[in-house]
Amino acid sequence: MIQVDAAMADSGGNDEDDVELILDPKVQESIGRSLKAHYDDIVNAPVPDKFLVLLAQLEATEQRAAGASSDERN
Amino acid sequence: MSATEFKDGLIKEIPNLRAFAASLSGSMQLADDLVQDTLLKAWGNSEKFEPGTSLRAWLFTILRNTYYSLYRKRGREVQDSEGTYAERMATHGNQESHLDLADFRKALAKLPEEQREVLIMVGATGLSYEETAEICGVAIGTIKSRVNRARTKLAELLSIGSLDDLGPDRKSAAAMQRVGSEIIGT
């Protein structure tokens, strides 16, 4: 807990004058696993269709524009 | 890079963009608005992306800038009125995780933004310290320092700052570091 107290006391300081705080590897690992669980839970969720629709529209618009400009050249 | 290749690249990154946006804003609804803005900006600036570099890092830079310039205030308002997404989001409840996901998200939401974003980038997205430093526009040492602070603060918020909370076997902690998943949570 000494390490945690040191972190609290130091939390107002800036990033550069850092006291080296080493958490126990098991604590670090537990946090790392939870971090991945949190993130991967969202990564693995279904992607809303609206994003795919949006990108398809953007692509179609660009292709129409490209087609129109090549028509003008021809 | 053709428009279709670029589009396919964007589609592949959407899940990561959503996860990063949710981690930043604390709201799935805001996250999806933020992802939509990011995709539109990326599309409009596609000629600025250098093929061969990390599309994820490029998109995260856009998303992060958009968040800090437009969304941060809105995020606080949404959180105040609706509670954080940690309380609202349906989750798949990871049985193997030592820490409950909802509790972890509440703690994560309490971290200062500058610590939370780097912890997510370094710890979950697959971005390197170098890429994270570039995205945030600070030195690598600053990133390392913020990650350290973030972990320490999380341990404190989750009351796992003392070894007793994770198990009694301090002597073999170093050995366990490599063993991993089976040990934590027993």
UniProtKB/TrEMBL annotation, chain A:
A Pfam family of this chain: NepR
Domain Anti-sigma factor NepR: 28-62
Protein name per Swiss-Prot or TrEMBL: Anti-sigma factor NepR domain-containing protein
Native source species: Bosea lathyri
The organism's taxonomic lineage, starting at the top: Bacteria, Pseudomonadati, Pseudomonadota, Alphaproteobacteria, Hyphomicrobiales
Automatic annotation (TrEMBL), chain B:
Gene Ontology biological process terms from the UniProt entry: DNA-templated transcription initiation
Cited NCBIfam families: PRK12547.1, sigma70-ECF
Protein name in the entry: RNA polymerase sigma factor
Keyword annotations of the record: DNA-binding, Sigma factor, Transcription, Transcription regulation
Domain RNA polymerase sigma factor 70 region 4 type: 103-154
KW Signal (keyword) present: no
Alphabetical list of PANTHER family matching this protein: RNA POLYMERASE ECF-TYPE SIGMA FACTO, RNA POLYMERASE SIGMA FACTOR RFAY-RELATED
Domain RNA polymerase sigma-70 region: 14-76
Record family assignment: Belongs to the sigma-70 factor family. ECF subfamily.
Protein species of origin: Bosea lathyri
Annotated GO MF terms: DNA binding; sigma factor activity
CDD domains in the record: Sigma70_r4
Gene3D superfamilies in the cross-refs: 1.10.1740.10, Winged helix-like DNA-binding domain superfamily/Winged helix DNA-binding domain
